[in-house]
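User: Quick sanity check before I run a bigger batch. Here is a single chain. Can you write out its predicted 3D structure?
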Amino acid sequence: MAYDIQVSGLRKSFGAVTALDRLGLTVQPGEMLGLIGPDGAGKTTTLRILCGLLFADAGDVRVGGLDPRRAPREVRRFLGYMPQRFSLYPDLTVAENLRFFADLFQVPKGERERRMTELLHFSRLAPFTSRLAARLSGGMKQKLALSCTLIHTPRILMLDEPTTGVDPVSRREFWEILGTLNQEGVTILVTTPYMDEAARCDRVAFIHKGRLLTVERPEAIPGLYTKKLFEVVTPDNLVAARLLRASGAFTRVQVFGDRIHLSASGDDETLQHQVTALLEAAGIRADSVAPIAAGIEDVFVELLK
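Assistant: Done. Predicted structure follows.
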């Protein structure tokens, strides 16, 4: 099979720090792959090597069948890369930024205006063409950055945590745009710290300390969790979590927002009684103790351990 993105045996170090350790990864044409991992896992380094902005110490990299180190110009013709930080010109307007990047990518003049009109409509930025980029909201900045990345119609798109710090409504709109692009056949590799975003991808790759832990389709990920998982709801989950960890009776106790997830062995009724008794002995009410299916975040935490 011909892959749009193929990485094997990838190694990269920065002094004594190993960023990538024999990383292997493939992305099929028209696929959206989510790359998730904690800070320092090697996500950004991977994307920069794929874009030809960094060189690997060892390993093989192919983007669209080409080596970005040996054929950087050819790769950039069909590749779009959106880095973590807003990298456009704050003192230019929305329209001026788009025109600048159209010139940078040598988009023909006759096609440039058509592409700009399409992207402004697509990103819902048409009413703001005269606004300085510096005066855009966080979500609008990200949509402008994506529009500039798409101005030369790339068939492979790489996005590095594109919605970090963006409000929930803008996040949803941004992912609707990505979904439309993917349906049109654009291959997408995206890093994200948000598990709900990872669940939108065709496959999810977990990496840690520069190594690939596993790659799975989102619907198959809960099956990787082999222990029993329970959700605990209490009025004070932080205190309750510390108490449950200190008991030593459970394999893992993790706070998830206003809930506690814990894993253990044994039958459901015994475990529910055990949790309730421990909390009530400390004067903490247990509103609910119930078995649940594992989510992406539960599986990821377990893989890290």
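The chain is about 35% helix and 25% strand.

User: Great, the batch can go ahead then.
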